[in-house]
Write a structure and sequence with these properties.
By secondary structure, this protein is mainly alpha-helical. Helices cover 79% and strands 0% of the residues.
Length: 57
C-alpha cells in the first residue's frame, strides 16, 4: 500500500474532492496503455478513496 497516498486521502474531508480524485483514477485505470499491475494499484487506491467517502457520509 502507498502510505503517502493513504495519508493524503484520509486527511481529506471534502467529499467533492474525493469523488473527483476517484473519477480521475477510474479514467486512468481504463487506459489501455497501462500494465495489469499498475491497474490493480489504481484499483486499490480507488478502494481507499471509497472507504474514506463512506466514513465521511
Amino acid at each position: 500500500m502507498n502510505t503517502e497516498f493513504f495519508t493524503k486521502v484520509f486527511s481529506m474531508t471534502d467529499l467533492g474532492a474525493l469523488e473527483l480524485l476517484r473519477d480521475e483514477l477510474a479514467r486512468k485505470a481504463a487506459s489501455q496503455d497501462i500494465t495489469w499491475e499498475t491497474r490493480m494499484a489504481i484499483y486499490n487506491n480507488i478502494q481507499i478513496i471509497i472507504e474514506r467517502i463512506m466514513q465521511l457520509e
